[in-house]
Design brief:
The complex is a heterodimer of chains A (about 110) and B (about 900).
Chain A (H helix, E strand, L loop, with lengths): L10 H11 L3 E2 H11 L8 H13 L3 E3 L10 E4 L1 H27 L1
Antiparallel strand pairs in A: 1-3, 2-3
Helix pairs in contact in A: 1-2, 1-4
Chain B lengths: L5 H9 L5 H21 L3 H26 L15 H14 L2 H30 L10 E4 L6 H8 L4 E15 L5 E8 L3 H4 L4 E4 L6 H4 L2 E4 L1 H8 L9 E4 L2 E9 L14 E6 L5 H4 L7 E6 L5 H18 L16 E3 H41 L1 H9 L4 H37 L14 H19 L1 H6 L4 H8 L7 H36 L10 E6 L7 H16 L4 E7 L15 E5 L9 E8 L3 H5 L3 E4 L12 E6 H8 L2 H4 L3 E2 L7 E7 L14 E5 L10 E7 L7 H12 L9 E2 H8 L1 H35 L1 H9 L4 H34 L11 H27 L3 H7 L1
Parallel strand pairs in B: 3-8, 5-7, 14-19, 16-18
Antiparallel strand pairs in B: 1-9, 1-10, 2-3, 2-6, 2-9, 4-7, 5-8, 6-7, 11-20, 11-21, 12-20, 13-14, 15-18, 16-19, 17-18
Helix pairs in contact in B: 1-2, 2-3, 4-14, 5-12, 5-14, 5-15, 12-15, 12-18, 12-25, 13-17, 14-15, 18-25, 18-27, 18-28, 19-23, 25-27, 25-28, 26-29, 27-28
The chains are: A mainly alpha (about 110), B alpha+beta (about 900).
Chain lengths: ~110, ~900
């Protein structure tokens, strides 16, 4: 898979992947976790969240955890392709920041 | 688990906006996630924000999902749909609309309100009135009205030509025991062709066959009972049940989709068994029990069957002159009617009324939408002209405006469907029993589409105005003059004025009707029931299976004693029936309709014979006007001692004093002697006339009618858990007796008002909505006019016109429109009021208070709606407006 082709990621997608990279979660947990770490105001609602999750599953970035049932809720985990995209996006952003920071520091 | 919060259920319902394929995969997960979020938010503010976020974004996600499904987009990354041809138009429209949030919100709300209301009501009407009954060839199903028929008559029906098949049935309450707590069920006795006529299929085992009618004690269960009582047990066939102490062998279970025809048997029937044709009572010509329906052969008309049934009624009158002839010697008729018509007749007028009201509301909403689009469009004429000069073709402009209307319409439609879900649930809660077939109601999206289309069409037509105005006009002129001219052209101004007048008129009609119904609801609550319901609890029982009246009475006396020993109980008594149980249906168990009583002065006296226990009158606090209640020792005397109601005393004997000591009764039936006269009381509803009643000792009950209504008077406040201790008290005396309900008398009275409450609540809500819309429309129009005339007003003020004068000018313009609307509205209300009259209680259809009140309310809101723009006009700063030009 060519991770570059999918960049840049929307902040929402980035945050979801980042949260899942720390461990499997179900829908509600994802909404709360994204909310908690987002000062940029990414607030998810269930309909939108599952739309994003479905798209990511389609790209095989994430997958539903088989058999692991927590209170009947479906749990998602990050897949290798997802790790790759996440890493690529973080690398891109870091590179971008490196380019931009001197301007602020100097100003 | 506790019942889920309303918001959670609403969210679950709203998820239906998503395409079904998506919903099946993720719907449940979404709902659970929302539920978790909802539970975690504890504060009202947090929850409000959550609801706003989740519901607010849902339409957008739904639109994206649908567009994905239709394969409109390319890359799915941004949803994609924004980027292609139509998608771009939509995006542009969304952007334009976001710049006018007030306009967009109002329009969406209006369309949502209209679509929601129409969808709710029309769904009900469609299910109850229009949709064919769920039976094969339902249009050929007929019934013979005028009450029920004897088994002998039923057999005569079966011999008639021109019919494919007949079915008959009747229902009785029965007690199912031996499966946990005893429960009361409805048992229906049905004829041979009952199931085949109605196209019923079994889910398990088989339905009834001819042989079953030989042995009778076989049963077919309803799907609901099978699930509820037997937990959908797969080995049901061959098991046996005990109903009223008789064993039945289960031969089958009906499929879940079978709806029992409510004209024939109880809708909640749990057990079906064959009619026992060998029963003497069934055969007896004067024992009318069986309700019938039949299917005509193809090509036979209902008139043909009418003629054949008329012939039969003449023949029956000749064969049974004792029974099939009325007092004038005419044969008792067999009126024929379509099964569908006859099952919904009772509610037809009410539902049509609702349909009319909601139609008016949709009309007001559409008028307002037209208004808003017109106002907005006229404001954009200049923008359009500029675009034209910049090279935009009329086609492109029209397309863009159409997409805008479409987006607004779609949002409003989505809102309307959500409202309809909530509305439908609310309607069914308000009026659970009054509608036949109501349990079959679910939201009809086709109806939503229809009403949505009406609103959309309005938006389309009026949304296109600005584009149309630029076509064929001299653009240069438009740019120079149109937007500057003091007014926006006489034609459109008149149109807008006309819209306001129409809105006010229609709203006035709705508000007046709401007033009439409210007044009639209040009037209907006012009458004194004639007894004291406070602190009385009632326990209807069906003590079946008693061989003799004595054993029935002993059992009930035992229950009575047990109830009396419950702490807090002051008195207890029982009667065969109880007030308000049969409210609305006007049918009770033991009624001598037209007593050909000997010893009664007037010729025909309708009376309700009410066997009661000794303390009944005292327990209900029905006052004695004269004489006294019989004593226990006298109860078995002949003639039987009776306490009669005041109305009966006057109807039958001319006066209370004249009634005392009189003896009356039919030949070959018990004779009664009047020992006391009691105050009148209402039996069928507060809005019904007081029934002519006679109270007689329980001891005269000639055969065992399996009914008894316990009434318990509680001392002071009802103690906590009273219902449970009463239920246990009944079971201490009669362990096998089901106790389906224990409720305060007040609740029965309250229930009897449900229909009127429903009417006035619905009309009140519609009237209020219409009032608000009319005021909003007027406000919008005047505000727009003021803006348009800013220059003119500025010049006037600059020339020294007094501020008050300018304000008066604006308010006067508004009130003139409102007044015109009110005059039309009053005329229309007078006409509509006539249609409403039969549903009103002690209020005329042209009640002046309702008319004046509604007009005052409307003119008041109109004055307020005009005053706000007027104040703005008065504050116009002359210099600023002139500079702005």
């Amino acid at each position: 898979m060519d991770a570059q082709a999918h960049l840049p990621l929307a902040p929402r997608d980035l945050l979801i992947l980042a949260v899942l990279a720390e461990g499997p979660l179900h829908g509600y947990g994802l909404i709360k976790a994204v909310e908690a770490r987002s000062r940029s105001g990414v607030l998810l609602d269930p309909a939108n969240l599952y739309r994003v999750l479905r798209r990511m599953s389609g790209h095989q970035w994430i997958r539903a955890v088989d058999g692991e049932v927590e209170g009947r809720r479906r749990t998602y985990e990050i897949a290798p392709d997802g790790q790759a995209v996440l890493r690529a996006e973080l690398a891109r952003l870091e590179h971008l920041l490196e380019q931009a920071r001197p301007a602020v520091a100097g100003g | 688990m506790a019942r889920r919060a309303f918001a959670v259920r609403a969210y679950g319902a709203s998820l239906r906006l998503l395409p079904p394929s998506i919903r099946h995969v993720d719907g449940q997960e979404m709902e659970r996630a929302f539920e978790d979020l909802w539970r975690r938010e504890r504060t009202a503010w947090g929850r409000t924000r959550l609801v706003a976020r989740c519901f607010g974004r849902l339409p957008r996600s739904a639109a994206a999902e649908w567009l994905d499904l239709m394969d409109v987009g390319g890359s799915t990354k941004t949803g994609g749909w924004e980027m292609t041809g139509w998608g771009r138009q939509v995006r542009l429209a969304v952007r334009t609309l976001r710049k006018a949030p007030a306009f967009t919100t109002t329009t969406v709300l209006l369309i949502g309100l209209g679509v929601g209301a129409v969808t709710t009501i029309f769904t009900l009407v469609d299910h109850v009135l229009l949709r064919p009954l769920p039976y094969p060839a339902a249009e050929r199903l007929i019934t013979v009205e005028m009450g029920s028929h004897s088994g002998t008559t039923y057999r005569e029906f079966e011999k008639l030509d021109g019919m494919e098949a007949w079915a008959g049935g009747y229902s009785e309450s029965a007690n199912l025991t031996g499966e946990g707590d005893p429960i009361r069920i409805e048992m229906s006795m049905v004829s041979e062709n009952f199931f085949s006529l109605l196209g019923a299929r079994p889910a398990l085992g088989r339905l009834l066959v001819m042989d079953d009618f030989e042995r009778v004690n076989v049963a077919v269960l309803s799907h609901a009972l099978w699930e509820r009582v037997f937990g959908a047990e797969p080995d049901m066939v061959g098991r046996s049940l005990r109903v009223d102490g008789v064993r039945y062998e289960v031969v089958g279970v009906l499929s879940a989709d079978f709806e029992p025809p409510q004209h024939l048997v109880a809708a909640s029937t749990g057990v079906y068994r064959p009619i026992d044709w060998s029963d003497e009572r069934i055969e007896a010509i004067d024992y009318h029990m069986i309700e019938v329906a039949g299917r005509m052969a193809p090509g036979v008309s209902i008139e043909d069957m009418g003629t054949r049934l008329d012939d039969l009624s003449v023949a029956m009158a000749e064969t049974y002159p004792e029974h099939h002839v009325d007092r004038e010697g005419n044969p008792n008729p067999f009126p024929v009617a379509g099964l569908q018509d006859s099952s919904v007749q009772r509610v037809r007028s009410g539902l049509n009324l609702l349909l009319g009201a909601v139609g008016l509301l949709l009309l007001v909403a559409c008028l307002n939408v037209a208004h808003l689009f017109l106002a907005r469009g006229l404001g954009r004429v200049r923008e359009m002209a500029i675009r034209r000069t910049m090279g935009a073709g009329p086609g492109g402009l029209m397309q863009q405006l159409m997409v805008e209307s479409l987006v607004v319409g779609a949002l409003g439609g989505a809102l309307g469907i959500s409202l309809a879900y909530v509305g439908l649930e609310a309607m069914l809660t308000l009026n659970p029993h009054a509608l036949p077939r109501a349990e079959a109601v679910s939201l009809d999206l086709r109806v939503a589409a229809f009403s949505g289309a009406v609103a959309l069409l309005t938006a389309f037509v009026f949304g296109l105005v600005p584009a149309l105005r630029t076509i064929g006009n001299d653009l240069a002129n438009e740019l120079k003059g149109a937007s500057r001219s003091a007014t926006s052209g006489r034609g459109t101004r008149r149109l807008r004025g006309g819209l306001v007048v129409a809105e006010v008129a229609v709203s006035l009609v709705l508000v007046t009707q709401a007033g009439l119904l409210l007044k009639s609801y209040l009037n209907a609550q006012a009458p004194d029931p004639g007894f004291d319901p406070n602190g009385v609890w009632t326990i209807p029982l069906t003590p079946t299976g008693h061989a003799t009246p004595d054993s029935y009475r002993q059992a009930m006396d035992g229950v009575l004693a047990s109830l009396q020993s419950v702490p807090g109980v002051e008195m207890a008594a029982y009667g065969l029936t109880q007030p308000f149980e049969f409210a609305g249906s006007g049918r009770c168990c033991w009624m001598n309709s037209l007593g050909e009583e000997e010893g009664v002065d007037s010729e025909r006296v309708r009376m309700l014979i009410h066997p009661v226990s000794l303390d009944y009158l005292e327990t209900l606090r029905i006052p004695l006007v004269s004489g006294s209640v019989w004593s226990q020792a006298d109860a078995t005397n002949t003639p039987v001692p009776a306490v009669v109601s005041e109305r009966f005393a006057i109807d039958a004997f001319g006066s209370v004093d004249g009634a005392m000591g009189r003896v009356f009764g039919r030949t070959n039936r018990p004779q009664y002697r009047v020992v006391g006269v009691a105050g009148d009381n209402k039996h069928y509803g507060l809005d019904q006339p007081a029934e002519s009643q006679i109270y007689v000792p329980m001891e005269v009950l000639p055969f065992d009618i399996p009914m008894a209504h316990m009434a318990v008077r509680v001392r002071g406040e009802s103690p906590e858990g009273l219902a449970r201790s009463l239920r246990e008290a009944v079971w201490r005396a009669e362990p096998d007796l089901p106790v389906p309900t224990i409720r305060p008398m007040d609740e029965w009275i309250d229930d009897s008002m449900a229909g009127r409450r429903f009417d006035s609540a619905i009309f009140g809500a519609f009237g209020f909505a219409a009032l608000f819309l009319a005021a909003a429309g007027l406000y919008g129009t005047l505000l727009y006019n003021v803006r348009q005339q800013r220059r003119e007003l500025g010049i006037r003020l600059a020339l020294g016109a007094a501020r008050e004068r300018v304000e008066r000018h604006v308010v006067g313009g508004g009130l003139r429109l409102a007044f015109g609307g009110a005059v039309l509205g009053v005329l229309a209300s007078l006409w509509v009021g006539r249609l409403l009259e039969e549903r009103l209680f002690e209020v005329g259809g042209s009640d002046p208070i309702a008319l004046l009140g509604a007009s005052a309310l409307l003119l008041g809101s109109a004055a307020l709606a005009s005053w706000l723009p007027a104040r703005r006009a008065g504050r116009t700063d002359p210099l600023e407006t002139l500079k702005a030009e």
